[in-house]
Amino acid sequence: MHHLHMNHVPILVTAVLQFVLGAIWYSFLFAKPWNAIITVREDGKNKAMITGMISSLIGDLLVSFAMMHVILWSGAATIAWGMIVGFICWLGLIAAPMFPQGIYEGRPFKLFAINAGYWLIALLGTGAILAVWH
């Protein structure tokens, strides 16, 4: 019943950090190559962006909530162990299904690298923070 006694503040903080990282990642660091690959249509861009941002924040909250459970179940209590848990979650739950999906869809490897790279950094940071602040 640990989920009834977990600290929800770090979940909120890490979700916001994931959201901010995503904003930086997709608008400053990799905006040009990402937009070129996904070819965003201009006619629905504003509505899609707002809906996407709301969906991202909700998804980030769910990711942080799930990661808190994994951190607690694993007993990780240091930055290093939190990052290891984050890496394992990234490898098995993000990279493993995302890579073949990109192949099936005929997407360039560069898109996988951009998207999976974001999630790698996000889950490493989330794991580190949640491990020491739970």
Summarize the structure.
The protein is mainly α and 134 residues long. Helix 1 crosses helix 3, helix 1 packs antiparallel against helix 5 and helix 4 packs antiparallel against helix 5.
Please give the domain count. 1
What does the overall shape look like? globular
* Helix fraction by DSSP (H/I, runs of at least 4): over 70%
Largest sheet: none
| Low-confidence sequence ranges | none
Strand content bin: under 5%
SS-derived structural category: mainly alpha
Number of contiguous helices: 5
Rg result: 16 Å
What is the CA–CA distance across the termini? 15 Å
Description:
The protein is mainly alpha-helical and 134 residues long. It has one domain (2-132). The chain contains five helices and no strands. The protein has helices spanning 8-29, 31-38, 45-74, 79-104, 109-132. Helix 1 crosses helix 3 and helix 4 packs antiparallel against helix 5. It is globular. The chain starts with 7 loop residues before the first helix and ends with a helix. The mean pLDDT is 92.
